[in-house]
Design goal:
With 175 residues, the chain is mostly helical. 62% of the residues lie in helices and 9% in strands. The protein contains 6 helices and 3 strands. Strands 1-2-3 form a 3-stranded mixed beta sheet. Strand 2 and strand 3 form a beta hairpin. The longest helix is centred in the N-terminal third of the chain and has 32 residues, at 2-33. The radius of gyration is 17 Å and the shape is globular.
Length: 175
């Protein structure tokens, strides 16, 4: 069962990563790096950087996953081609045999930055988290793209959770 779950989780991650790649090609650097009011002056590229770095943290972890310690690469947020290359690397890594080892999630939720906690987790659980995290950011990106770049047609289901897509499909079939 763990191998089946890992394959399902991997495929779900691959699906959203491919959607991000497709959009990055459409945005090019101008739309990718543009400061947008709906994002409080931030860019779509900053969301991409954030998403990509979470995957890099997970895939580069050696038993301890700490998303707080990500690199924060300005190249990822300012260069759509570099972001696509990074996504391709993540995809290639995920397409290999998945890691199934247990690991620890480490984070600091204190205001002053002095209280690291460690929680037992697994690679599969963190893959599930990354799907939810990515879809959340994609939902924000979807709103922004539809507002500022209406000429770009997003893939069906972009920024929508799998459970919501299933629900929408079920309710449309009933009607």
């Amino acid at each position: 069962m763990p191998q089946v779950a890992n394959r399902i989780l991997t495929n779900a991650n691959l699906r959203v990563l491919h959607q991000l790649k497709t959009l990055a090609h459409h945005l090019k650097d101008e739309g990718y790096t543009q400061s947008l009011d709906l994002l409080s002056g931030n860019s779509i590229g900053k969301h991409y950087r954030h998403i990509i770095e979470f995957y890099q943290c997970l895939l580069g972890s050696q038993g301890i996953v700490n998303y707080d310690k990500r690199q924060r690469s300005f190249d990822l947020e300012n260069n759509a081609d570099f972001a696509v290359e990074s996504i391709n690397t993540i995809i290639a890594t995920l397409e290999k045999e998945p890691i199934v080892d247990d690991c620890n999630y480490e984070a600091d939720f204190s205001d002053d930055g002095g209280e690291n906690i460690k929680v037992k987790t697994s690679f599969a659980r963190e893959l599930a988290y990354n799907i939810e995290h990515t879809v959340h950011h994609m939902a924000i990106i979807q709103i922004v793209v539809r507002y500022y770049f209406p000429q770009i047609i997003l893939e069906e289901g972009f920024g929508v959770a799998a459970s919501t897509l299933r629900y929408q499909h079920q309710t449309s079939c009933v009607q």
